[in-house]
Amino acid sequence: MSRSRRAGNQQVRYRQRRSLAILSIARRRRLLNDEVLISLADSSWEILDISGSDVSDIGLATVANISNNLWAIDISRCERITAAAVSEVICHCPSLEILRCGGCPRSESTARRSVYLLKPKLNTLEEDSWEELDTVEIGGGAESLRWLVWPKIDDNSKEIISMECPRITVNPQPSPFDLHGHKVPAEALASIPLDHSIIADIDPKTWAVAAAPRRLTIPTNPNAPPEIPIAEKFRLAYVEREARLAPKRAKRERQQRRRAEREFLMNDINAKSVALAAQVSKYLRKS
Fold first, then answer.
1. Cβ of 75: how many Cβ atoms within 10 Å?
2. Contact 149, 101 (CB under 8 A)
3. What global pTM score does this model have?
4. 88-106: per-residue pLDDT in tens?
5. Are 230 and 36 in contact (CB under 8 A)?
6. Cα 237 → chain centroid
7. Taking Cα atoms as reference points, which of 76, 164, 72, 71 lies closest to residue 116?
8. What's residue 119's pLDDT?
9. What InterPro entries is this protein classified in (predicted)?
């Protein structure tokens, strides 16, 4: 892989991680809504955790159209999301493997109404022979879904999924392998937040909210400059943090590079010979 391509991939990963970190902090501070979500949406996203937020069908459907590489989504405890948005996710995210839902009365109702969306379907076709059929045309439902995290799933929904969707494991438990011989990913465990890895190295004080009384809203001055959007505030805070940590990262990289060079000199015979020859030459010049 060329240097420019590696640099491009690093920039994509950095942009993805930055936007997801801002999203995770906004969710924990209970500031996540459609406006924030859509402003941060990135086509490179692979996971999406909007649990307990004010995101509605509009926000989720919009992100499903933008980020169609999503393979893990958490919509648990979302009061404003219905089965219509789940249908959009299944339609536009063919790689979806993990879905988290339930957790509050409205989300439980959405999960029950979405069960039929997970079932495989056969569409009506008019081709002359089966050789002319396309698998996309005859297939339907959440074909790639493998893990459903729904802690309070009702018996009827559980039976339907067991009978109609045997490929889906409901509420998997921590273990090296599940009943189907596949390793259970950490993202499919209810005890671990879906976005845990995104904010693992971020100080929890970043999203801590003090329990202060609400202040009265003061009418804004029409001549005052426009207020910075919440998403932009988070972005600026993240950029400031990255700039503050950049010297430390550079120092750590230099230390690792010097350590690697020392190990190379200690372990490589040719390198030892060159170093020894340099020392002998230096000694002879002095004498």
1. 26
2. yes
3. 0.66
4. 999 999 999 999 999 999 9
5. yes
6. 20
7. 164
8. 83
9. LRR_dom_sf (IPR032675)
